[in-house]
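#help-structures

NK: newbie question. if I give both the sequence and a SMILES, will the prediction place the ligand too? trying with zinc ion
OV: yes, paste both and it writes out the complex. here, I ran yours:
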Amino acid sequence: MSQTSQAQTSKPPGQGRPGQGRPGQGRPGQGRPGQGRPGQGRPGGRPGQGRPRRERKPIVEPEWIPKTILGKKVASGEISSMEEILSQGLRIQEAGIIKKLVPDLETKVFDVGIIQKMTPNGQSTSFKALVAAGNKNGWLGIGMGKSKQMRVAIEKANNAAYINVSPIKLGCGSWECRCDQKHSVPFKVKGKGGSVTIEILPGPRGLGLVAGGKIRDLLQLAGLKDAWTTAKGSTATMNSTSKALLNCLRQTFSQG
Ligand SMILES: [Zn+2]
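OV: that's the protein plus ligand as structure tokens.
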């Protein structure tokens, strides 16, 4: 009897504990995922690499939702050409406007670089990208983007290039050719960006683009087929070179 009574007496407090233990178990229950997190945290312990990889997967071009008044007018069809916008001197702040009005634009990443800075915490690395957008028929824009992630830098540059798109007057200013086709510049143009000065001279049909690799690519994207070019200054600095080139090509309008 004494053994059973001890067993009985021992049980009630034993049952009492689980009664208290339920909330108590609740805590360990919360504690388990808490233990689980450090378990996930070990792969997450390589987090710097793991997180951007996860972000990279869902790259879906979101549908354009216009934010500015101009954007809404373009989306609704009230404004239907770039000429309308440019003649009114309106400022384009959304890439979607350009994408809609000049639908055959293609973009090209033509320069990427790493920016390294010393900070009190050590070295910080970020990326910059230069992107050109053109339709090979008189429209060209160049944009730059910077970010800690290469992909974001390119995205920003893409956006900037679209917004930057402006018309270029093509023509034939060559005395050797004198045709009416739009294969060159209508006259000699000169532009400056930073230390770089670029000059574009009209050339006869069949000449091709007489220019260095990246300048040639950009001229091609703008729609030029034949031209002579000269470039002075540190043309390896693509930032300046692209600015000079755009300034140069925009001259085709200011003079014509
Ligand atoms: Zn010609």
